[in-house]
């Protein structure tokens, strides 16, 4: 099969007879239905990220939480210089998949105010920096439960204006 697809006869060098793009088409469109490795890799990395975020019961997830995250938020942790290839790929892939992960707030004790997507303008860290957070008595570890007491939001009033401005900018661009 390899010789037919990629060689001029039995495993010889030469011009390929079928393009990779044609092979990866679904069978209904004339291809062989072979999946691209890069697409499969992205899919599997996204599944690993989902396992970490949802706290799937597995030894690997527990190990990641204990030794890699160390009580940090997955979206916030910096990429270490000396980490493994697999961990680096997971961390680099965050920017591509974060928009697809929404957090159910529940009681708010497990939802990060700054890093999780829990409202339309999230993640909020995009427009409120850590120094501004600290100035108002918050930290990168602040949870939604910390800013909502008995149904009342404890936001500084100028942050609401900042959120509205940022949302308008986002809608216009």
What structural class is derived from the secondary structure elements? mainly alpha
Helix content: 40-55%
Bulk shape: elongated
Q: Specify Rg, calculated over alpha carbons.
A: 23 Å
Main sheet characteristics:
2 strands, antiparallel
Order of helices and strands: HHHHHHHHEEH
The end-to-end span amounts to 50 Å
Number of H/I helices = 9
Number of strand segments: 2
Mean pLDDT: 82
Order of strands in the sheet with most strands: 1-2
* Unreliable runs: 169-173
Portion of residues in beta strands equals: under 5%
> What count of structural domains?
3
Structure write-up:
The protein is mainly alpha-helical. It has helices at 2-6, 20-23, 37-54, 59-69, 85-92, 94-97, 130-135, 144-147, 157-172; strands at residues 148-149, 152-153. The longest helix is centred in the N-terminal third of the chain and has 18 residues, at 37-54.
